[in-house]
Amino acid sequence: MSSLRIGFIGAGRMASALAGGIVRAELAAAADVVAADPSADARSRLEADVPVRTAADNREVLKSADVVFIAVKPQHVAAALQPIRDAWEARHLIVSIAAGVTLETLVELAGGAPRYVRVMPNTPCLIGQGASGYCLGPGADATDGAQANA
User: Fold this and answer.
1) DSSP-derived secondary structure letter, 86
2) What are phi and psi of 107, to 5 degrees?
3) Ordered per-residue pLDDT tens for the chain, 150 residues
4) Which residues of 112-123 are buried (b: 16+ CB within 10 A; e: fewer)?
């Protein structure tokens, strides 16, 4: 089992599918996965699907995770990222699955995050049968790409 610590900003269907896949593939232990969402219902659904930790505050994800998935609807990315602009550390890798949100926009909204990867999963990922394309962004290297590819 990897010692990778994974976080999700957003706890909806794609976060649930990805978190479940990560835990089943033993890329991270369930105890090393945390997801934040302002909706108590979304957090409860995720906890019922995958035994991961949840929080209401996105800063909890940044405290606990090395790889942080941006798993909110595109129209909510700014509201999710702007309050945590000052909380990124050198260890953080942002992996965005927000459709239509460019790397340039992510950098602008997240501010101090050191590394970015943009991933476009498709809907079959919801049942563990999908494919994803990814693009390395500012600061990301081959190791980050390998993590995104896993």
Assistant:
1) T
2) -60, -45
3) 457 899 999 999 889 988 998 898 888 999 999 999 999 999 999 999 999 999 999 999 999 999 999 999 999 999 999 999 999 999 999 999 998 999 999 999 998 778 999 887 655 455 555 556 667 788 888 888 877 776
4) ebebbbbbebee
Beta strand segments in the chain, E: 6-9, 33-36, 53-55, 67-70, 93-96, 115-121, 132-136
Rounded Cα–Cα distance for residues 99 and 73 (Å): 8
Place of tokens 């590394």: 115
- 5 neighbors 32 (Cβ within 8 angstroms): yes
The distance between the two most distant Cα atoms of the chain, rounded to a whole number of Å, is 37
Q: Which residues contact 144 (CB under 8 A, 6 or more apart)?
A: 93, 115, 117, 136
